[in-house]
């Protein structure tokens, strides 16, 4: 495990490792040291397009903007192609049908190479040449997983730790720097024993500071340095803005002078808060949808019993259908000539069970003076039907308040009626009669009701038959 965590160039544990397109890793510093700047195509040798017998190489762009190059033995299905030819169309004459190579990636490489900004690096493990863009090894992806493994593995073996500690010097020695004995996490300064006793005593506010070994301090400084996001194009500038068009963080130099000069840029902190709010809303929405989905799944699971019952019903229906078809096949064929019959037996039975009785005209209804009343310019009359006979409707008549002609004010089955809109300070006479299909009864005895004098006053009711007045309040 320990050998796999060491760089093949410096033979030390990986420091800020980057991943090559051939899937081998290097330290960032080592990769910068071994990368080479290629001259323009016009100055390269061997750029003959017609030399198809030479052992040429083919480069293929990957997602990181690099080109992996191998020999023709590595790619037997691809025709020989000279990468230094500017007139190559991508299709070799007299070649196989599968000799077409897409020109999208090579066009980018050719344009970069013609401007003199093409870098190359040879992998020290597999010896393959990797072509890079103008950013060089800075464009290679960081191997964060390998870096995490190294951090969990620790500072390395005792030999490596001792060797690293010997290289770290005190930062406060004036002349010859002594070897560092510790580092303060808060001050981020390496001290030897004498400088630590003189400049960093364990008293006062410095008593709460934590001192660690030089190796651990170096690892802490590397961690703190990697936390700061730097621009790939301007390595000395921090990423402080966010390009809305390209959806990438940029520095202020990129926003003012670089490729994002005319793009819509916002402060990185503001965009982080906005994205966090959107993420929170999306998470809340997803949580609600997940809750609804869980409830729906529970409902679906609870329907399995119904599905089983439905299957049983389907089997029963199928069995009944088979039995019915079997009986139909056994039944004799019906003649095309048939007779229509009318079954009137139940009608005759109903006629025999009918009871007939003689219906007479209803008797004279009786007005109930105790339930009659008058309030303001309205009167209420109540009556009851005669005990014998069947009543279908009642007709209530009222005169004009001046002992004039009667007129019908109500026809219906109710035994009480209120008449509104009468004259104030007037005496009204009322009578009622009953009706049915046979005929009608005589009018009842009249009752007299007096309306108020424009406000609520006691009223009197006169029973004409007994010639007695009933006074109500």
Features:
single chain, 473 residues, alpha+beta, 30s Ribosomal Protein S14, Chain N, Double Stranded RNA Binding Domain, 4 domains, 6-stranded antiparallel β-sheet, 5-stranded antiparallel β-sheet, 23 strands, disordered C terminus, E3 ubiquitin-protein ligase TRIM9-like isoform X2, metal-binding, E3_ligase_FN3/SPRY, Ig-like_fold
In short:
By secondary structure, the chain is an alpha+beta fold.
Based on helices, strands and strand pairing, what is the structural class? Answer: alpha+beta
Strand fraction equals: 15-25%
For the largest sheet, list the strands in their spatial order.
18-17-20-21-22-23
Broad shape: elongated
Detail the poorly predicted runs: 44-116, 155-159, 456-460, 469-473
Task: Characterise the protein shown here.
This protein has 473 residues and is an alpha+beta fold. The protein has four domains: 3-145, no CATH class; 155-227, Irregular (30s Ribosomal Protein S14, Chain N), CATH 4.10.830; 231-286, 2-Layer Sandwich (Double Stranded RNA Binding Domain), CATH 3.30.160; 366-472, Immunoglobulin-like. The protein has ten helices and 23 strands. Strands 18-17-20-21-22-23 form a six-stranded antiparallel β-sheet, with no helix packed on it. It has a five-stranded antiparallel β-sheet with strand order 3-6-7-5-4. Strands 14, 15, 16 and 19 form a four-stranded antiparallel β-sheet that branches. The radius of gyration is 55 Å and the shape is elongated. It holds the Pfam family zf-B_box.
